[in-house]
Amino acid sequence: MRAGATAEITRLVEELSRLSPEFEALWQDNDVAGNADGHKRVHHPEQGILELEFSSFAIEGRPDLGMIDYNPATAETARRIASPVGPASSA
């Protein structure tokens, strides 16, 4: 795994590699480059504001391919993401 990869990224790459031989081959070629990291606030219609951290990756020579990884930036966002979402109940 690449230096600086979090446990979540490592698990994601392992899962994608297991599910997609093409992803595994591209990842092993080491042509994946980090493009951007940052924070994003997203308004979810049922969960409210979600604070997220993201990392985007591109495949050199393949502008049609990319991957963006989003993770909760706060404990509150992690709690909201983990809770089930469904239709609002009528009062």
Automatic annotation (TrEMBL):
Protein name in the entry: MmyB-like transcription regulator ligand binding domain-containing protein
Lineage, highest ranks first: Bacteria, Pseudomonadati, Pseudomonadota, Alphaproteobacteria, Sphingomonadales
Domain of life: Bacteria
Pfam hit, one: MLTR_LBD
Domain MmyB-like transcription regulator ligand binding intervals: 3-81
InterPro entries tied to this protein: MLTR_LBD
Alphabetized Gene3D superfamilies for the sequence: 3.30.450.180
Organism: Sphingomonas trueperi
